[in-house]
């Protein structure tokens, strides 16, 4: 969070312009990861559990195991549907949620730096909020988008040394 606060302040203070911006058809001209990590934070716990990857283990998991996992992020993620999160971009409740949830903090930053109606300056975020399947499906889509828009772009990763792992 502190890193994002520092980078956002530098961007604002020195009016830095993003390289390779997609304009309104991008998530945020500067940062993608807060949306990805934020969507992950709002996914139900079983999305990332070992039982999700292994159906046999899932069938043998007991109810007491589920009770032990008292993850408030996932509980709130289930309560805050993605379409409601986009609605919150217009209200004060977003400020309170942004203290705990990266996705809300990323939306709050967009709200602070962009003017006009949310659907006009951030149509992609509005479209994401309407994805059926909730945070799990949104997270999977953001992972695919990150791979395509960041890791698959030679211009973006050209200075990272991968050795034989990256052509």
The count of DSSP E runs of length 2 or more, i.e. the number of strands, is: 0
Q: At the first level of CATH, what is the class of the domain at 35-48 and 70-156?
A: Mainly Alpha
CATH topology of the domain at 35-48 and 70-156: Four Helix Bundle (Hemerythrin (Met), subunit A)
SSE order in H/E notation? Answer: HHHHHHHHHHHHH
Instruction: Provide the CATH architecture of the domain at 35-48 and 70-156.
Output: Up-down Bundle
Write the layout of secondary structure elements.
Blueprint: H1 2-13, H2 33-42, H3 50-53, H4 55-60, H5 63-68, H6 72-79, H7 82-88, H8 93-98, H9 102-113, H10 118-121, H11 123-129, H12 134-151, H13 154-157
Descriptive overview:
With 167 residues, the chain is an all-alpha fold. Helices cover 62% and strands 0% of the residues. Helix 7 runs antiparallel to helix 11 (123-129). It starts with a helix and ends in a 10-residue tail after the last helix. Residues 51-71 have low confidence and may be disordered.
List keywords for this structure.
167 residues; mainly alpha; Four Helix Bundle (Hemerythrin (Met), subunit A); 13 helices; rotamase; PTPA_C_lid; isomerase
Short recap of the structure:
The chain has 13 helices and no strands. By secondary structure, it is mainly alpha-helical.
């Amino acid at each position: 969070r502190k890193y994002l606060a520092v980078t956002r302040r530098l961007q604002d203070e020195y009016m830095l312009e993003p390289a390779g911006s997609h304009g309104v058809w991008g998530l945020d001209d500067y940062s993608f990861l807060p949306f990805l990590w934020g969507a992950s934070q709002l996914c139900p716990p079983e999305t990332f559990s070992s039982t999700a990857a292994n159906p046999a283990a899932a069938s043998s998991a007991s109810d007491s195991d589920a009770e032990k996992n008292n993850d408030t992020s996932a509980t709130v993620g289930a309560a805050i549907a993605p379409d409601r999160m986009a609605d919150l971009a217009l209200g004060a409740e977003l400020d309170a949620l942004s203290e705990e949830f990266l996705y809300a903090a990323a939306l709050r930053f967009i709200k602070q730096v962009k003017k006009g109606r949310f659907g006009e300056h951030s149509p992609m975020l509005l479209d994401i909020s309407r994805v059926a399947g909730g945070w799990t499906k949104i997270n999977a889509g953001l992972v695919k988008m990150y791979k395509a828009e960041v890791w698959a772009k030679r211009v973006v990763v050209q200075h990272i040394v991968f050795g034989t792992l990256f052509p």
